[in-house]
């Protein structure tokens, strides 16, 4: 593979490293946020649940097909930074929840697997796509492992508001900046042309495809229990008398073994 292709692959891995690592760290904020805002844990969990539903919408993928992945990823970086900074300044759980669910949810959708792997796949020869996809996916897992202790360190040093704002600023600079390294539409190595199928027709076809339904069901099961554990595990462990550091390490081990 050419040097340019390697740059695209590594850039994609770095993006999902930061995006999924930040998302995996959200559970660390449950106790300090609810205690500071006087909110229930259920309301925090509801915001994260809405976040997961929103990031599952295919809006970013549709936009990437229409205007290209560069613009979508750059916009996602801007939204991620904005959402986390606004959440850090919230004076109530409502404003916090909207920032986390809506802005951060859309941002993760646009700067994680769907759009990034799609862009990488169009820049890599078919014979090396499996390797490229595995490399990018591994970047997400490493991010889920490495970013959690960093986020906990930021919370310890800056408080939850400073930590969330810092993560937002880093995401904005890195993701929006790195988006320029993704291939432009004219540089993508497309091996076949689109057949002009509309989005509605493509969705209907997918919903009639057994393999697609089985794959989606697997992702549903994975997302349901991992998201649940990611939100509640740190608070549960500290409730049982373990330290914040131990809780963060326990959460990060999910990413390592993934």
Description of the molecule:
This protein is mainly alpha-helical and 258 residues long. It is built from eleven helices and no strands. The chain is globular and about 50 Å long. The relative contact order is 0.18. Mean pLDDT is 89; it is low at 187-193.
Topology:
Layout: H1 3-24, H2 30-37, H3 41-55, H4 59-67, H5 69-88, H6 93-110, H7 113-123, H8 129-178, H9 199-207, H10 210-239, H11 244-257
Helix pairs in contact: 1-7, 1-8, 3-6, 3-10, 4-5, 5-6, 5-7, 5-8, 7-8, 8-11, 10-11
Please outline what is shown here:
The protein has about 260 residues and is an all-alpha fold.
Computed CA radius of gyration, to the nearest angstrom: 18 Å
- Based on Cα principal axes, name the global outline: globular
**Strand segment tally:** 0
The first-to-last residue Cα distance is 27 Å
Structural class: mainly alpha
Sketch the topology as an H/E string, one letter per element: HHHHHHHHHHH
Average the pLDDT over all residues and give the rounded result. 89
What are the low-pLDDT stretches, counting only 5+ consecutive residues below 50? Answer: 187-193
DSSP summary: helix tally? 11
**Percent in strands:** under 5%
> Largest sheet, if any?
none
Helix content: over 70%
